Amino acid sequence: MADLRLTIATFPHGQWDGLKDGRVKPEGIELEHIQASPNTYRLMVRNLEFDIAEVALTTFIAAKWFKIPITGIPIFSNRDVTMSPITYNVHSGIKTPKDLEGKRVGLRSFTVTNTTQCRALLKSEFGVDTDSIQYSVSEDAHVAQYENPPNVKQIPDGKTLEQMLVDGELDAGLQLSNEPGGDIGLLLTEEEADEVGLGFFRRTGVYPIGHVMTIKDSVLQEHPWVGPAMFRAFAASKDFYVDGLSSIAEPARRDRQALRNRELVGGDPFPMGLAKNRQAMEAMIQIDVGQHIIPEPMEVDSLFAPNTLDLE
User: What is the mean pLDDT of residues 51-55?
Assistant: First the structure.
């Protein structure tokens, strides 16, 4: 019988190189690889563009709440323990994170995973009332059915968040591309942002998840074996990468991040399987409730293919 042909969109993380270069082949499946971009999330949750796709975790959780026909397998990537950069206009009166209360803050989209986690850290680590902030966004949510809260407004066409921050139309920004200098300051240095994330990790044990692998429900309904087959293939590809991390001659930024996180978590920087990631998943669901992404918690198991729940 011929292999099942499936399209797959993943980011250029080293842990997927084994799948892309042929060292790992999922049993019974021939993959057509497509390099993912931030637009991949939208294409997957709105158009079901790919059979398999790497999707930002908050987008995935929102998609499941709105019953988008995709399902996860417990394969996770893009993990780090830090806080997203926060820039501010030096004339805004902002000196500390607490000063963000009541201010005008720009971010790409309200449901971006990293900035959702950042708002949660502002709340938990600095006591910031994140609901008091007036947010300006340049993009709508990836999930079309999602409606922004009342304190989130779309910026006018022809404007950019970065220029609005420079011009004083915004007081601060989360993950904007402005470089510090002139009228733009950095609220936390990279070292301070790392310490915030590390403090959260040490206190809670939660190792944040950025991305999760998803599969179209139509594929899993017709071929339920695809979930476990892809889990095993992703896990094998990741093992190739992790086993070779220390021998990379010129590690790139993501390699250095993985090496650092391996020391931090005391082992595999990309643990797979729900048993090792249940706490992180439950934490992100609670964050998404607290940040108005979904109205109430969801059961973790309901997000993943049933025949992958016990895989390790």
Answer: 98
